[in-house]
Structures are given as C-alpha cells and as structure tokens.
Amino acid sequence: MTATAAPTVLTARALLLDMDGTLVNSDAVVERIWRRWADRHGLDGDDVMKVAHGRQGHASMAILLPDRPVERNLADNALMLAEETADTDGVVAIPGASDFLASLRGLPHALVTSADVALATARMTAAGLGLPGIRITAESVGASKPDPEGFLKGAAELGVAPADCIVFEDSGAGIAAGKAAGMRVVGVGSRAGAHGPDVVVRDLEQVRVEAGEDGTIRLFVG
To answer: What does 30-43 look like in DSSP terms, one character per residue?
Structure first.
C-alpha cells in the first residue's frame, strides 16, 4: 500500500498514538543498539531489525532467541532500556508531529508505546515534543504489541469504545495490535504500507485534524 494520494476523511472520538516511527524518528539509535545486541548474540543484524520495531525488547528477544529463559530476556531488556534512554543522538520529531500534537489539545488522545516511562520521556523530550496527558507505556501492560492490550487500555482510559478510536502506527506489530483491538489504523512512514493499515501517510504533515461540534474528531488524511 502506498501513501494515500487523495485526501481521505476519517471520523473518530479518540486517537491513539504510537511513539517510535510515528511521532519520533528514533531509527538511528534503535539500529545502533539492536545491531550491537545482534553482534553479541551471533545473529544477523538485518534479521533482527525485521523483528525489533514496535515490540517491547524482551518480546523481540523471545522471538529471536526462543530457547532462552524469560528471566534472561527481561534482564537483558532492562539493560537495553537504560542504554536506549541514555542515547538520544539522532532522535528527532517526525515531520509534522509538533503541529499534529498541538492540534489535538483538548481532544481525546493518548500515547500508546512499547517504551517505558523513562524512555518515552527521553525520546519525546529529545524530539522537542510534549507528552500527551494519557500515556500507556510498557509498565501499563502485561503483553507487548502485537497484543491489543495497550490500545484497549488507552481506549478505556479515554472512555471511548474501541471502534470509535483511530490508531497511528508505523510497525507491523503495532498495526496488527490496532487491528486486533477493532480499531482503524493510519499507517505512518515507509514501513507501514506492507502491513495493511486502512490508509498510509508519508508523515504527519499529511494529516489535518478538525474538531466536530458533536464531539467527534475529523481527520483529513493524505
């Protein structure tokens, strides 16, 4: 699926926003850290990167090293989170993210990210973006994307039915999670199109938000 050519109008009552690849371009640091991890474990870096985007680290490790004990994955993930939090070199906002978030002030929306609180705060700050008031982070859920738990919790926090939510995501795992939650998905960026979102945009400069008088949110996408 390629970026939507003609503007598409979508209506929702709440928006649920992924962070990495959707609001924040953290590809440089993600590549650095995960490729180092791949080298340490004798894995092909390209193969690792196909799995790592969108999931919590320990969930990616469980796929890549299926015979390794869960406890070792969790311990390794804690070290990786600390490393990622300290390394913000090259972390920047996705084009249009600042204006997009500004347009959501006063409208129901939440951040739903596989990052923990510390990492989400570090990356959003490095990108010059404010954190939404409602945040579903790694600490909030028992299951990583592609499980829909995070998006369902975000909808519940906002008091909005899943079918009335629109998800913004870039990764296969995140798009699958949004679909599994019964939500429509706007795919953001070059990774998104291969994973079946409802529409795709190059970046957030291709999204315009308008508040409806009946409490709905109108999205002009494309």
So the answer is: HHHHHHHHHHHTT-
| Residue 67 annotated among the catalytic residues of the structure | no
Cα gap 163→181, rounded to integer Å = 8
C-beta neighbour count of 157 within 10 angstroms = 18
Phi, psi of 99 (to 5 degrees): -65, -35
Find residue 25's DSSP bridge partners: 92
The per-residue pLDDT for 4 is 45
Average pLDDT over residues 9-22: 97
Spatial neighbors of 177 by CB under 8 A, at least 6 apart, are 145, 146, 147, 148, 150, 151, 167, 169
The neighbour count for residue 133, using CB atoms within 10 Å, is 10
Confirm if 101 and 71 have CB atoms less than 8 A apart.
no
Determine which one of 20, 76, 147, 164 is catalytic: 20
44 is catalytic: no
Angstrom distance (rounded) from CA 58 to CA 75: 9
For residues 125 and 93, give the distance between their C-alpha atoms in angstroms, rounded to a whole number.
10
Question: Average pLDDT, stretch 70-74?
Answer: 95
Contact 85, 29 (CB under 8 A): no
Alpha-carbon separation of residue 147 from 13, 56, 142, 179 (angstroms): 22, 11, 9, 10
First to last CA, the chain: 13
C-alpha count within 13 angstroms, C-beta hemisphere, residue 199: 20
Cβ neighbors of 213 (< 8 A, separation 6 or more) are none
